[in-house]
């Protein structure tokens, strides 16, 4: 069974919802969106992986997409390190200094007050000692040791004053500098060393040291609010530690003992216990809807014929799905996605290049999702696809899919290399990627070549490539035409060149016109010698036939041509031209002959007309006009520009008046342009020979004596043209 037949049947069934056009469109749109989601965002719903820390992995676990995330553990560690560098904020408590000074001064003032009493000097030493001891009760209560108390009681007042001054001096020194709670013990340990510089004897130094130890208190108070503010500010300046898991990265290998870090990584890519990001899924769905809506709006506004054709809509949807599937194969490296351009190529060839452009944009945007929104991938796909679409527009001028593949490959190489230079990628790696991208361009052309015949057949589309193949002279039917009806073959080639020249001028397809002209008279293969261009020196068989039978034979070449179209499986666009190139024209020569020979019997005009239909397209009309004009101009005895112009205008006018152009979209302006082109070309093809001046004729007469007359040579070369032309016109 032909593999193309079930493929075509499935596609037909997909679109077979004729009873409800709107429902059909909704169904198609829904199916398309679903399939795009399956291809593009399948990794949003990951496979469920249930593993625990410490378990042994039973497979290689691969990251399905690229994810950047904040490593909480490392970020907290970094924050802790930063906090350690933030010093606590302390405020100095001035009251501590004042209180400590008051305490020290209070001891010495109490002692001085005793000494200053009027009876103190007359008292016995023991009595003085008792009073001093009593005055120092406060000092004793705060922990001043016994030696210091004895020193204050028994030392002379000058020595006591020296101790007071030194104690107050060092007290202010320490407290004005500030003492933190955690350093008070260290300060007290260093008192003896610091007092070495004081102008005191050893006993005085010991007393001063003891008094300072009791008077010194921490005076730096922690400002908790300001400290916290500074810590928060420091944390705010800490950049979170971001890590990236690359698509395709191995998270755990078969046999690995699963660690907590691996579980975290699986959570981040959505693999752990089948986690699904609903917001991600919804966002991607909205994005895809927007992309599809843009394409639909483009087709509705600029390509209405495509928008209204369900078959072409299904074709475009299928092409996009195929291209995205090819892109999915290049999941891990965007520069492997060269074959995605095959989608744009297929759209440009099977529909038209303008549709190919919008498909290029859609594929680039959707492929950007597949590769995790990589701008390089979008640019790569877009440039390669558009290069392919551009080359398709040149196929009528000799471009082939091989050249298209080379052009896409060159575009891919350039865009990869330029972006790689911007990103400062290693030269060797850059060259490797560029060559890979170039090979991808060739792969796109190969894939297009492979898929094209199936899509052409399934959707009954004739592409320029197919037409160009049919236009080759080595085609079987062209070979038959050349061998069995050589005159018709050369006539068809001439008509093709003539009609093609006018096609571009009026917006017709030049490839369809040229190839259609090559095949328009293939029906003459069945009875070639009944047509004047194939009658090489033989009697005209129509001279022995009735006008009615001759008309039947002449007009049947259209039906015979359609039979050959079916036999050789020629595309519909060609068979339509075969059927329409004579429209419903009247075989006027035989009609007039019948009218003259039927002796008054009723001759119906409809019996002498072609069955039609009339030309439905510009292309068929161009071939009809070219066919008639070429035969008519050939019949002119001595053609010149004015005669050629008159004949061409007459042919066009007669067919216009006969209503042959009523069913195609030719305008009067188009007909004028066609006439101008045909007149210019036919005037050059069928010009009369040069008229020689009298001096030349005299020379010729002299040469006649030797049998070398130029006139005879010239006449001999053109003597078999006019009669054939007249006969051809009659048979057309």
What does this structure look like?
The protein has 732 residues and is mainly α. The protein contains 34 helices and 6 strands. The chain has a two-stranded antiparallel sheet with strand order 1-6. Helix 2 packs parallel to helix 16 (310-329), helix 8 (157-177) packs across helix 11 (202-215) and helix 27 crosses helix 29 (618-634). The two termini are 44 Å apart. The relative contact order is 0.06.
List keywords for this structure.
disordered C terminus, membrane, 34 helices, transmembrane, Arp2/3 complex 21 kDa subunit ARPC3, 732 residues, HDIG domain-containing protein, Metal-dep_PHydrolase_7TM_extra, mainly alpha, two-stranded antiparallel sheet, transmembrane helix
Draw up the topology in text.
Blueprint: H1 4-14, H2 21-40, E1 61-62, E2 67-70, H3 72-84, E3 90-92, H4 94-115, H5 125-135, H6 137-141, H7 146-154, H8 157-177, H9 184-189, H10 191-194, H11 202-215, E4 220-222, H12 224-236, E5 242-245, E6 250-252, H13 260-268, H14 278-302, H15 304-307, H16 310-329, H17 341-350, H18 353-370, H19 375-392, H20 401-422, H21 427-458, H22 464-470, H23 476-484, H24 486-506, H25 510-519, H26 547-567, H27 572-580, H28 588-597, H29 618-634, H30 641-657, H31 668-685, H32 694-704, H33 710-718, H34 722-731
Antiparallel strand pairs: 1-6, 2-5, 3-4
Helix pairs in contact: 1-21, 2-16, 4-5, 4-8, 5-7, 7-11, 8-11, 14-18, 16-17, 16-18, 17-18, 17-19, 17-21, 18-19, 19-20, 20-21, 23-24, 24-25, 24-29, 24-31, 25-27, 25-29, 26-27, 26-28, 27-29, 29-30, 29-34, 30-31
């Amino acid at each position: 069974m032909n593999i193309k037949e079930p493929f075509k049947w499935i596609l037909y069934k997909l679109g077979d919802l004729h009873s409800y056009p709107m429902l059909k469109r909704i169904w198609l749109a829904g199916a398309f969106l679903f399939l795009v989601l399956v291809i593009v965002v399948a990794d949003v719903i990951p496979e469920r992986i249930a593993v625990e820390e410490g378990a042994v992995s039973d497979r290689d676990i691969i990251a399905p997409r690229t994810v950047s995330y904040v490593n909480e553990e490392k970020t907290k560690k970094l924050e802790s390190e930063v906090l350690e560098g933030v010093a606590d904020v302390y405020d100095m408590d001035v009251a501590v200094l004042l209180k400590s000074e008051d305490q020290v001064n209070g001891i010495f003032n109490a002692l001085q007050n005793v000494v200053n009493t009027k009876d103190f000097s007359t008292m016995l030493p023991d009595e003085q000692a008792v009073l001093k001891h009593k005055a120092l009760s406060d000092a004793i209560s705060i922990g001043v040791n016994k030696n210091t108390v004895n020193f204050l009681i028994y030392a002379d007042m000058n020595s006591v004053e020296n101790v007071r001054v030194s104690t107050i001096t060092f007290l202010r020194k320490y407290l004005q500098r500030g003492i933190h709670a955690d350093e008070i013990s260290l300060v007290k340990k260093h008192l003896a060393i610091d007092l070495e510089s004081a102008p005191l004897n050893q006993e005085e130094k010991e007393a001063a040291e003891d008094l300072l130890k009791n008077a010194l208190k921490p005076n730096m108070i922690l400002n908790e609010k300001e400290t916290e503010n500074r810590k928060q500010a420091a944390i705010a300046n800490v950049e979170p530690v971001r890590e990236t898991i690359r698509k395709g990265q191995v998270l755990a290998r078969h046999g690995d003992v699963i660690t907590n870090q691996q579980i975290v990584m699986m959570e981040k890519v959505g693999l752990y216990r089948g986690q699904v990001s609903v917001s991600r899924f919804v966002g991607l769905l909205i994005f895809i809807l927007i992309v599809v809506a843009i394409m639909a709006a483009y087709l509705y506004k600029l390509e209405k014929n495509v928008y209204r054709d369900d078959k072409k809509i299904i074709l475009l949807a299928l092409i996009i799905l195929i291209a995205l599937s090819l892109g999915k194969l290049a999941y891990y490296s965007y520069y492997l996605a060269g074959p995605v351009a095959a989608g744009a190529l297929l759209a440009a060839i099977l529909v038209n290049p303008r549709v190919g452009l919008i498909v290029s944009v859609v594929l680039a945007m959707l492929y950007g999702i597949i590769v995790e929104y990589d701008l390089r991938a979008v640019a790569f796909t877009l440039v390669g696809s558009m290069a392919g679409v551009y080359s398709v527009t040149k196929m009528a001028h000799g471009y082939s899919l091989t050249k298209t593949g080379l052009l896409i490959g060159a575009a891919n190489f350039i865009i990869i290399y330029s972006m790689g230079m911007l990103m400062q990628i290693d030269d060797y790696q850059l060259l490797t990627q560029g060559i890979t991208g170039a090979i991808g361009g060739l792969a796109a052309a190969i894939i297009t070549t492979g898929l094209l015949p199936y899509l052409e057949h399934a959707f009954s589309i004739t592409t320029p490539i197919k037409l160009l193949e049919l236009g080759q002279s080595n085609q079987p039917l062209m070979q038959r035409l050349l061998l069995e009806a050589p005159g018709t073959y050369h006539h068809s080639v001439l008509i093709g060149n003539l009609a093609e020249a006018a096609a571009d001028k009026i917006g017709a397809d030049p490839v369809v016109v040229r190839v259609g002209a090559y095949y328009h008279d293939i029906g003459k293969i069945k009875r070639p010698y009944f047509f004047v261009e194939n009658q090489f020196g033989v009697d005209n068989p129509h001279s022995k036939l009735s006008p009615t039978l001759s008309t039947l034979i002449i007009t049947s070449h259209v039906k015979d041509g359609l039979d050959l179209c079916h036999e050789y499986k020629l595309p519909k666009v060609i068979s339509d031209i075969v059927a329409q190139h004579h429209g419903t024209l009247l075989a006027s020569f035989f009609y007039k002959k019948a009218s003259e020979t039927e002796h008054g019997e009723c001759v119906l005009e409809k019996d002498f007309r072609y069955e039609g239909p009339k030309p439905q397209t510009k292309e068929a009309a161009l071939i009809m006009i070219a066919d008639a004009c070429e035969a008519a101009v050939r019949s002119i005895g001595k053609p010149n520009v004015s005669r050629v112009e008159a004949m061409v205008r007459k042919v066009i006018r007669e067919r216009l008046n006969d209503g042959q152009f009523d069913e195609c979209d030719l305008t009067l302006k188009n007909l004028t342009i066609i006439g101008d082109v045909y007149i210019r070309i036919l005037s050059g093809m069928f010009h009369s020979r040069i008229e020689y001046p009298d001096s030349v004729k005299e020379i010729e007469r002299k040469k006649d004596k030797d049998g070398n007359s130029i006139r005879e040579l010239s006449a001999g070369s053109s003597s078999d043209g006019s009669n054939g032309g007249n006969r051809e016109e009659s048979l057309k």
